[in-house]
Specification:
Homodimer. The chain contains 12 helices and 14 strands. The chain is α/β, with parallel strands linked by helices and about 350 residues long. About 40% of the residues lie in helices and about 20% in strands. It binds 1,4-dihydronicotinamide adenine dinucleotide (NAI), 2-OXO-4-methylpentanoic acid (COI) and magnesium ion.
Length: about 350
């Protein structure tokens, strides 16, 4: 059976890291006879430069027809002066909303080899394995109305709207409760229910759902405390469920517990388990073109793709084992470099994973 994978490299370091993930995916495709067909498309700034739009119709059409998508990252200073609706980031948000990819899974796992690269002391993070379940197609990133308006007197006012409907909360809640059931049975819902009505509703729905999952222990935490607890005692968390913006911020924070944002993969799924897979980081314009970006988050996103959308658990595990082996060999990109290790480029890291497979 042939299945199609759409590669969307995007901008900045996107093409560099996606090239490494593609090598790795093509190798497991051969080794495990997966029958994957690879196609390529434009999104973000690269698409704006070529077609004038961050999400060309052709890309969306191919994305809708593909079994899974691997995306690098979008955005960069070249396009930052464009009005919001025309920026590269709209291409990514458009893919997420058009494909209804509401469930964003961001596992923050510390590879033991990287304990000294973590921002926290090894004893605080050893064995760290957190799953952040972030709602991805609602909340303040999508709420209407939004914009900048002129007030009486001429002063301008920027505004966005934080909205969640009951059904949006319920469907992401179910994903999180089910994830907790398959893990330790502990779920922490993160909100700001002491200030924001939308998250009072969020909390109410989570409490309601908890009645259907008696084997899951649900707790609630305000987002400011959660941000603090993540760096104080991160191992108190197993599954965290939260809204779009809080999840965006907390997952970058959690990334540093694993050594680098260059280590954090993600899966964005819809109800049909069609998925887009991408590293949690952005296009890193400050290091783009230097061949020093860490490709492991993208390679590990490829493993998540095999697991969640293509049902190829063995191939996914093979990639994860190869990454672990490469770290055992002491190979490190600059962001996870430590004393006694050997620094390698983006391409050398990809080649090492390939050789370890
Ligand atoms: N999913 C996406 O496409 C995302 C896109 N962005 C966009 O990316 C652009 C840059 O945003 P920033 O806030 O600078 O966030 P960023 O995640 O691109 O970079 C933050 C810092 O992390 C480093 N970094 C990121 N990925 C790395 C990797 N693989 N290896 C080594 N170091 C890495 C960068 O060098 C930088 O110092 C913006 O245009 C932003 O809108 C930001 C986040 C996600
Ligand atoms: C365009 C942004 C919402 C992307 C981002 O920061 C993310 O998804 O982590
Ligand atoms: Mg982010």
């Amino acid at each position: 059976m042939s299945r199609s994978v759409l590669m969307l490299p995007g901008d900045g370091i996107g093409p560099e890291i996606v090239a490494e993930a593609e090598k790795v995916l093509k190798k497991v495709n051969e080794q495990f006879e997966l029958g994957l067909q690879f196609d390529h498309g434009l999104v973000g700034g690269a698409a704006i430069d070529e077609t004038g739009e961050p999400l060309p119709g052709k890309t969306l059409d191919r994305a809708e027809k593909s079994d899974a998508i691997l995306l690098g990252a979008v955005g960069g200073p070249k396009w930052d002066k464009l009005e919001m609706a025309k920026r590269p980031e709209k291409g990514l948000l458009g893919l997420r909303s058009n494909l209804k990819l509401f469930a964003n899974l961001r596992p923050a796992i510390l590879y033991p080899q990287l304990a000294s690269a973590s921002s926290l002391k090894p004893e605080v993070v050893s064995g760290l394995d957190i799953m952040i379940v972030r709602e991805l197609t609602g909340g303040i990133y999508f709420g209407q109305p939004r914009g900048v308006r002129k007030l009486e007197g001429g002063e301008r006012q920027g505004y966005n709207t934080y909205v969640y409907s009951e059904s949006e909360i319920r469907r992401i809640g179910r994903v999180a409760f089910e994830a907790a059931q398959q893990r330790s049975g502990k779920l922490c819902s993160v909100d700001k229910a002491n200030v924001l009505e939308v998250t009072v509703l969020w909390r109410e729905i989570m409490d309601d759902l908890a009645k259907e999952y008696p084997d899951v222990e649900l707790s609630h935490m305000y987002v400011d405390n959660a941000a603090m607890q993540l760096v104080r005692a991160p191992k108190q968390f197993d599954v965290i469920v939260t809204g779009n913006m809080f999840g965006d911020i907390l997952s970058d924070e959690a990334a540093m517990l694993t050594g680098s944002i260059g280590m954090l993969p993600s899966a964005s799924l819809n109800s049909e388990k069609q998925g887009m897979y991408e590293p949690c980081h952005g296009s890193a314009p400050d290091i783009a073109g230097q061949g020093i970006a860490n490709p492991l988050a993208t390679i590990l996103s490829g493993a998540m793709m095999l697991r969640y959308s293509l049902g190829e658990e063995k191939a996914a595990e093979a990639i994860e084992a190869a990454v672990s082996k490469v770290l055992d060999q002491g190979l490190r990109t600059a962001d996870i470099m430590s004393e006694g290790a050997k620094q390698v480029s983006t391409r050398e890291m990809g080649d090492a994973v390939l050789a370890a497979l």
